[in-house]
Amino acid sequence: xxxxxxxxxxxxxxxxxxxxxxxxxxxxxxxxxxxxxxxxxxxxxxxxxxxxxxxxxxxxxxxxxxxxxxxxxxxxxxxxxxxxxxxxxxxxxxxxxxxxxxxxxxxxxxxxxxxxxxxxxxxxxxxxxxxxxxxxxxxxxxxxxxxxxxxxxxxxxxxxxxxxxxxxxxxxxxxxxxxxxxxxxxxxxxxxxxxxxxxxxxxxxxxxxxxxxxxxxxxxxxxxxxxxxxxxxxxxxxxxxxxxxxxxxxxxxxxxxxxxxxxxxxxxxxxxxxxxxxxxxxxxxxxxxxxxxxxxxxxxxxxxxxxxxxxxxxxxxxxxxxxxxxxxxxxxxxxxxxxxxxxxxxxxxxxxxxxxxxxxxxxxxxxxxxxxxxxxxxxxxxxxxxxxxxxxxxxxxxxxxxxxxxxxxxxxxxxxxxxxxxxxxxxxxxxxxxxxxxxxxxxxxxxxxxxxxxxxxxxxxxxxxxxxxxxxxxxxxxxxxxxxxxxxxxxxxxxxxxxxxxxxxxxxxxxxxxxxxxxxxxxxxxxxxxxxxxxxxxxxxxxxxxxxxxxxxxxxxxxxxxxxxxxxxxxxxxxxxxxxxxxxxxxxxxxxxxxxxxxxxxxxxxxxxxxxxxxxxxxxxxxxxxxxxxxxxxxxxxxxxxxxxxxxxxxxxxxxxxxxxxxxxxxxxxxxxxxxxxxxxxxxxxxxxxxxxxxxxxxxxxxxxxxxxxxxxxxxxxxxxxxxxxxxxx
Length: 730
What we know:
730 residues, two-stranded antiparallel ribbon, disordered C terminus
């Protein structure tokens, strides 16, 4: 800058006043340029922007996650509408039967009789244009399943209760299957798993049966299977043995991994993307993501549903729905009616009834000819539960290619054709990308080391009954490390660099990294690449195409306006990733109560938190270079983090709670076993008994749950029958 200014003044002395005026203009331009380079946000302005933006985003996501529609009553709704009041009556009746393990009187007799009586009442008020058939099936069979290491399952005379609703005037060879299960695990009322699904299907059946305006074109089979908790036996008995199964062209399965809240679409297919498209198009409250499907089918979550049986043994495509909120009560005594919040039944019923009506009543339904949809697999995700976006895989591949290669070409053009930036801009992008990746590694390592420290200290899972603690315990330390890495780079690698130019360098570096990542996901044909595409695409279009002059280095736009526009462009990106992070936490935090004693839960939640920070904050972190200072913000985060760690390792960090506000119990299996051994002569050779204790979470017996006698009892080796058997044999 100094050399350029001197040469202008020298020329002005030789060429007279005109050149001198030109020199003065250039100097003023350069002086103005220097003033603009100094124009950055103050610490208060930066803190205000970030606080307001992420607070608003937080409350928008919070509202969308927990919003439930108003329940409908029988008196206010039309007869063809789903009503939560009607479904709740069925729910209370099912739960009042008590625990319903397969083979019990409560399940095989009482629940089956209640369904039969309810269907008889529906049949009495049904439209004359529908035919309702009712059957009880008691199949016997066996099968193998590749789950938890793989095993074989044998069942005999289990109880399935079935109904078929079909048009009277014509026979259909195409049927939609709606499946739920009446049984519950031993010791649990099973309100959400799966009495609520049975109640929903009975109310859906009533609404369809009384409809005199829109005739059925295809059959509906309602399967109330009586042995799901015995590892999917009821669904296998139906799909492999019942004659109605031959007509099934698609199914909808209702399950639960929690209680209440929204039902999420977490599996579709295999293939047959028209089902996901039907749900996205016709469900009034769609909620689901392709990421949940890929996560569940990866085997990370230790659970399975009847979806597997219909898919593998029936070769039938379907949709898998599940309640997942409040997973603490899953398969426990606390899975009762009180946990089913008002509105969640209405929400599920509205969605299922609308989709079922389309599939069995609309002439545009693809149920009779699924092969007519020829767009291949489909990726889907909802946006705040308002609508669901669906993109065929081939179209997704094209869009991924455009918005992964396009930004790379844009960055290459900046490095080659902009003479002002050509000498070092390419190297700066590489340095910026290296800084970003290093900050990610540092963030993950910091959080994991903190999780290891807390685990070694003996107080793991402090967040279990306090999910908000994750923000202070792992969120703030991880975010502080990301910010510190940027500040270190700004004061060393990019020392004396203009703040806004540095912000642009880091934005372009982030764009380079995520475009490369999107390209790789597209190469692997992962459908969850849709989520990354929806994050990268708005930023590319707004910042790099439509408003690129606003963010140019020579732009006259004020810092406040720039930041406001940039945060506006970030809205879709932040909401989508924030929503996915929120749902992931709601799933995995309660899941820590049943991960077993091998996997430290703090490591799982810490890693999940670090990844969430990397995804949610990655594009917004470039803006900290346009803020004068963030030292007191860092100091506040560190202070809150230290307080959270001290709280966690103290006695106040006890992980379990059962109060009016939250139910987060410790899971413990206690089984009493009596054994009698016989020799070859049929005489008793040995009799003994014992108690088998099995904890489901990492702390195990490290937490005093009341009885020291259990902890202090010596381990007794299994005597078996080896000695006795050998003697008898000899």
